[in-house]
């Protein structure tokens, strides 16, 4: 009788052990490895990697941070400015991880978290394109998984990269950026400007004519009457903290040199003032998503034209969105972005 009880106990223990082991195996099999950074070179830094960039003026480091793991869908984010930071993209944390899409934050050279040589000879689209290519190689991004998303100035950079290196891309996303700086300026002055109250527009133009861009009144007018309508459609006191942090960290030197003093068109001797690649868009065969906002500083009709001009384009129009549509029309923005990435990944993009 004692032996019988003993064997029963042994059998129960073995069955329990097998059940627990099977349960453990099932949980392990179903558990996502999206946030598993173990045994990776960036494990101790939480995905942060400083990348050495070779330039005509020496070697400098740029800051990147990987979020998640997905060998098939990896998105490199190019921030705006020039001289802005990756911080503006914080909203992506609320949407892409749930879809297990890997994305990489990146501060371009002379932006806040990267080295700042402060050498204007390095502030050219050609040099920045080569920087992106070096980042791509360092992160092992390939044509089988590499999506490039550029917002605002980042959209200029993304398109310039694609025009030279599109064979490295799986997908291209141009977010809130026209492909002609002169057309952008024309839209600002002929369409958006007249929507302002006449006295406000006159005061802005008078200050610009006097080159009085450092006058606090100039910023006040733009922020309260233009930016809250066309940059981010929220009262200033409700602007998301990451956007305010990005503006706090913005590098004004490179911004003014390349873009000018405001988002009300490109002003003065800004080096991007005459940038225009419209006649080259037909050469882009990479699947391309063009994101526009109805209330953007960028003409949505032009953006629609861009989507039709490239060989494999799709337009995503955010009806409530402005220049930062990922904050003022986030559901439209991210649903469209995620759908595009997954469509390209599965071969369902048309």
TrEMBL record:
One of its GO terms (molecular function) is peptidase activity. Residues 75-330 form the AB hydrolase-1 domain. The active site is at residues 152, 296, 323. GO terms for cellular component: membrane. InterPro entries: AB_hydrolase_1, AB_hydrolase_fold, AB_hydrolase_sf, Peptidase_S33, Pro_imino_pep. It comes from the Bacteria. Gene3D superfamilies: alpha/beta hydrolase (3.40.50.1820). Keywords: Hydrolase. GO terms for biological process: proteolysis. Belongs to the peptidase S33 family. This is Proline iminopeptidase.
């Amino acid at each position: 009788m004692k032996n019988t009880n003993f064997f029963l106990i042994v059998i129960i223990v073995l069955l329990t052990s097998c059940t627990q082991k099977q349960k453990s195996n099932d949980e392990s099999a179903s558990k996502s490895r999206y946030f598993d950074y173990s045994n990776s070179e960036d494990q101790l830094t939480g995905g942060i990697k400083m990348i050495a960039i070779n330039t005509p003026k020496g070697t400098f480091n740029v800051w990147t941070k990987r979020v998640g793991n997905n060998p098939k869908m990896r998105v490199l984010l190019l921030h705006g400015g020039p001289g802005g930071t990756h911080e503006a993209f914080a909203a992506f944390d609320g949407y892409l991880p749930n879809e297990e899409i890997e994305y990489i934050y990146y501060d371009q050279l002379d932006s806040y978290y990267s080295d700042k040589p402060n050498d204007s000879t390095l502030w050219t689209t050609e040099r920045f394109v080569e920087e992106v290519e070096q980042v791509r190689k360092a992160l092992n991004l390939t044509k089988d998984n590499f999506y490039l998303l550029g917002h605002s100035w980042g959209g200029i950079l993304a398109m310039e990269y694609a025009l030279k290196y599109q064979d490295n891309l799986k997908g291209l996303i141009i977010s809130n950026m026209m492909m002609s700086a002169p057309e952008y300026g024309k839209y600002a002055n002929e369409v958006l400007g007249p929507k302002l109250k006449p006295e406000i527009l006159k005061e802005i133009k008078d200050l610009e004519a006097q080159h009085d861009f450092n006058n606090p009144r100039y910023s006040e007018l733009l922020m309260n009457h233009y930016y809250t309508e066309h940059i981010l459609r929220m009262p200033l006191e409700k602007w998301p903290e990451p956007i305010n942090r990005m503006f706090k960290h913005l590098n004004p030197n490179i911004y003014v040199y390349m873009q000018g003093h405001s988002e009300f068109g490109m002003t003065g001797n800004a080096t991007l003032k005459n940038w225009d690649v419209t006649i080259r868009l037909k050469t882009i065969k990479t699947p391309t998503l063009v994101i526009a906002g109805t209330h953007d500083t960028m003409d949505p009709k032009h953006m629609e034209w861009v989507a039709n001009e490239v060989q494999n384009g799709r337009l995503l129009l955010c009806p409530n969105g402005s220049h930062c549509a990922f904050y003022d029309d986030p559901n439209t923005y991210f649903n469209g972005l995620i759908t595009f990435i997954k469509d390209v990944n599965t071969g369902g993009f048309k």
